[in-house]
């Protein structure tokens, strides 16, 4: 078969193990999709696929079992979904009937956020869509996830960028009855950032994650939310074969504008330092940072960024992780 696989992949179709068959990948920014589009996905799966839909780890839909020669027709069918990205979210996509213009930057995923979850500190879908608007379409391989609180249900620590919601708890000592509900919860479930002193609560700002659980636990409303939204940004987490690792904290107590700007700046960093001989022109950003160095990445990421008075920046990050050097972990002679 005379198939331009590079073009197919860029158009958001997968090269599968079944000869002559492909799989369509549908973006769902923030994990949120209007149900009016479900009929389109169902029709494609039933008429041109194998009748099934796979929900990907990044919250998109994948429709397998499609013949390669049906791609142009399917692209026209999904035009309303792609146009929805443009009309509903402001994502700039030209020629919507040609299908997705890029697939390198993965779907921006998100937990359910504060629309539903009492622990979430912000509207994760809303931020995911804003990030999608600022970076898509793009061919560079970048993974981003938004999670509402440090519980990290979306697994932000396994992404290139994980955006974790933070809230600054405001304490009204006049409403506190000294029940210690917040202190006990923080000690058992969080970081032990709260302690009792002269029958009132003291918060250690260096240990506080900004999870907001003290606010939820207080029976008298002594804790309230600073209405300003803050975020912790963790970076360069990954799976893979060479050096899997969890993301590490890069920024704390930053605002939404900073989050979006540092992600945009990172694409300039990638263009400057990507391995030009990388297979298929694709290189995981974490390996680029490893090669260029954290300080170089930080310089690019923070270019033209104005940090707020509460913001914290990691001075150095030792990413670590582990490598598949099996002789380190296993004794070949042991039984």
From TrEMBL:
One of its GO terms (molecular function) is heme binding. One of its GO terms (biological process) is sulfate assimilation. It holds the Pfam family NIR_SIR. Coiled coil: none annotated. InterPro entries: 4Fe4S_Fe-S-bd, 4Fe4S_Fe_S_CS, NiRdtase/SiRdtase_haem-b_fer, Nit/Sulf_reduc_fer-like_dom_sf, NO2/SO3_Rdtase_4Fe4S_dom, NO2/SO3_Rdtase_4Fe4S_prot, NO2/SO3_Rdtase_4Fe4S_sf, NO2/SO3_Rdtase_FeS/sirohaem_BS. Keywords: 4Fe-4S, Heme, Iron, Iron-sulfur, Metal-binding, Oxidoreductase. The keyword Iron applies. One of its GO terms (cellular component) is sulfite reductase complex (NADPH). Residues 167-197, 199-228 form the 4Fe-4S ferredoxin-type domain. Belongs to the nitrite and sulfite reductase 4Fe-4S domain family. NCBIfam families: sulfite_red_C. This is Anaerobic sulfite reductase subunit C.
């Amino acid at each position: 078969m005379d198939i331009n696989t590079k073009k197919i992949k860029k158009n958001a179709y997968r090269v599968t193990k079944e000869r002559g068959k492909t799989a369509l990948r549908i973006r769902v920014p923030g994990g949120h999709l209007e149900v009016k589009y479900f009929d389109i996905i169902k029709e494609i799966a039933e008429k041109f696929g194998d009748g099934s839909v796979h929900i990907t780890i990044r919250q998109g839909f994948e429709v397998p079992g499609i013949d390669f020669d049906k791609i142009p027709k399917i692209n026209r069918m999904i035009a309303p979904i792609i146009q929805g990205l443009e009309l509903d979210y402001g994502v700039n996509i030209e020629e919507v009937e040609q299908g997705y213009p890029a697939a390198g930057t993965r779907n921006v995923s998100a937990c359910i956020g504060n629309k539903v979850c009492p622990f979430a500190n912000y509207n994760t879908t809303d931020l995911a869509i804003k990030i999608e608007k600022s970076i898509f379409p793009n061919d560079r391989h970048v993974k981003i996830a938004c999670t509402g609180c440090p519980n990290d249900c979306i697994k932000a620590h396994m992404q290139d960028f994980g955006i974790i919601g933070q809230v600054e708890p405001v304490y009204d000592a006049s409403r506190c009855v000294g029940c210690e509900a917040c202190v006990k919860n923080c000690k058992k479930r969080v970081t032990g950032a709260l302690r009792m002193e002269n029958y009132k609560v003291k918060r250690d700002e260096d240990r506080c994650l900004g999870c907001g659980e003290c606010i939820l636990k207080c029976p008298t409303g002594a804790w309230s939310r600073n209405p300003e939204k803050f975020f912790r940004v963790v970076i360069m987490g990954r799976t893979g074969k060479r050096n899997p690792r969890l993301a590490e904290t890069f920024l704390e107590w930053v605002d939404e504008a900073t989050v979006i700007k540092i992600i945009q700046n990172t694409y300039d960093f990638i263009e400057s330092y990507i391995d030009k001989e990388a297979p298929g022109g694709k290189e995981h950003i974490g390996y680029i940072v490893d090669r260029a160095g954290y300080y170089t990445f930080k310089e690019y990421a923070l270019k033209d960024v104005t940090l707020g008075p509460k913001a914290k920046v990691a001075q150095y990050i030792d990413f670590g992780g582990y490598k598949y050097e099996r002789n380190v972990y296993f004794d070949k002679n042991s039984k």
